[in-house]
């Protein structure tokens, strides 16, 4: 369990529920799946107000009602700030972002109701909003913290300067930046994101850590090199290729926490087992070389 400065508890692997529709689980099956994940140590569950055309949180709420003890066993992460066009919201003419004080407050009330819970363990702003007024966000966050409705706060897909701006107005630390990071998306290594996380002790959560399953697709020269190198190192280490792909992310000293998107308990077990494997430095660089298509300078 990661207990970095101020973050509360986050399991070393987070269960992402974005693909819940593909899983076709009944509420009872979803509750059993989340319980099974918690049993092996994956106790943090990620969702967002917009998942599944705004239905994802209600589906999780149904699962919690089926298994009343489950909510207290997990840490619940949700997000707000994106406004998707939807038949449920005919007034929305354009997809946009909204991090206004009023929208954040209203969305948290909706999330609490849909999730059938009285608190959110971690609230993330889903995307950087070019019209964000950091003072307003700070007011919204402070009120939510004071009321006990949200315990901790973070951001998602923020660049370092955007984190800095928001942090400059907050009286408490942002605890997470949830970012796209995988062997097929290595930009956070070089754009300052992971350096900032390490510096500010912000936990980087890596979404699509297996590049949405594409990491094994062998697409293009680099895709093939990554897949081949993963397979070879997996053989040498007595692990699976997906475990090595996750271990590569977790080897970073910023303390990366992969948000996995599988609907299969066996893959959840493999992922949590990968969290106790520390990848050899040369293996790490072999994978970086495959991902970059050249050796380091
Ligand atoms: N903050 C953001 O902006 C943002 C954006 C996107 C996602 N997210 C979060 O990140 C979570 C994870 O994203 P993701 O689902 O793209 O993650 P992922 O773990 O990279 O991809 C999951 C997909 O890969 C497949 N897969 C896993 N292992 C495989 C293997 N060995 N061979 C072939 N396919 C395999 C899974 O299928 P099976 O189900 O069959 O295992 C599933 O379809 C989401 O649920 C969401 O919570 C956040």
Q: What would your notes on this structure say?
A:
The structure is a single chain. With 297 residues, the chain is an alpha/beta fold. The protein has a single domain, classed as NADP-dependent oxidoreductase domain (TIM Barrel, Alpha-Beta Barrel). The chain contains twelve helices and ten strands. The strands form two sheets. Strands 1-2-3-6-7-8-9-10 form an eight-stranded parallel barrel, surrounded by five helices. Strand 7, helix 7 and strand 8 form a beta-alpha-beta unit. The two termini are 36 Å apart.
Quick structural gist:
The chain has helices at residues 20-23, 27-39, 51-54, 56-66, 101-115, 134-147, 160-169, 193-200, 220-237, 241-250, 265-274, 281-292; strands spanning 14-16, 44-46, 75-80, 82-83, 96-97, 120-125, 150-156, 176-180, 203-207, 257-260. It has 297 residues and is α/β, with parallel strands linked by helices.
Could you outline the blueprint of secondary structure elements for this entry?
Layout: E1 14-16, H1 20-23, H2 27-39, E2 44-46, H3 51-54, H4 56-66, E3 75-80, E4 82-83, E5 96-97, H5 101-115, E6 120-125, H6 134-147, E7 150-156, H7 160-169, E8 176-180, H8 193-200, E9 203-207, H9 220-237, H10 241-250, E10 257-260, H11 265-274, H12 281-292
The structure holds NADP nicotinamide-adenine-dinucleotide phosphate.
NADP nicotinamide-adenine-dinucleotide phosphate is lined by residues 16-19, 46, 126, 156-157, 178, 207-213, 216, 242, 259-264, 267.
């Amino acid at each position: 369990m990661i207990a970095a400065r101020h973050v509360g508890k986050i399991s070393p692997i987070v269960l992402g529920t974005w693909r819940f529709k593909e899983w076709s689980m009944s509420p009872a099956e979803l509750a059993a799946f989340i319980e099974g994940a918690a049993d092996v140590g994956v106790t943090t569950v990620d969702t967002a107000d917009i998942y599944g055309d705004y239905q994802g949180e209600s589906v999780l709420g149904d699962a919690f009602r089926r298994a009343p003890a489950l909510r207290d066993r997990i840490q619940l992460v949700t997000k707000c700030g994106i406004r998707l066009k939807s038949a449920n919201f005919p007034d929305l003419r354009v997809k946009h972002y909204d991090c206004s004080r009023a929208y954040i407050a209203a969305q948290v009330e909706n999330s609490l109701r849909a999730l059938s819970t009285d608190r959110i363990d971690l609230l993330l702003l889903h995307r950087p909003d070019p019209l964000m007024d950091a003072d307003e966000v700070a007011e919204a966050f402070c009120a939510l913290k004071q009321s006990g409705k949200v315990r901790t706060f973070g951001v998602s897909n923020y660049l370092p300067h955007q984190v800095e701006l928001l942090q400059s107005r907050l009286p408490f630390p942002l605890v997470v930046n949830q970012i796209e990071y995988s062997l097929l998306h290595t930009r956070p290594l070089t754009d300052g994101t992971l350096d900032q996380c390490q510096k500010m002790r912000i936990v980087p959560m890596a979404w699509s850590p297996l590049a949405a399953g594409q990491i094994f697709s062998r697409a293009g020269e680099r895709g093939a090199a990554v897949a081949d190198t993963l397979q070879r190192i997996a053989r040498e280490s007595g692990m699976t290729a997906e475990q090595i792909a996750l271990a590569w992310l977790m080897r970073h000293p910023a303390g990366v926490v992969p948000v996995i998107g599988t609907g299969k308990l066996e893959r959840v077990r493999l992922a949590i087992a990968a969290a106790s494997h520390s990848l050899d430095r040369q293996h790490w660089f072999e994978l970086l070389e495959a991902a970059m298509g050249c050796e380091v300078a």
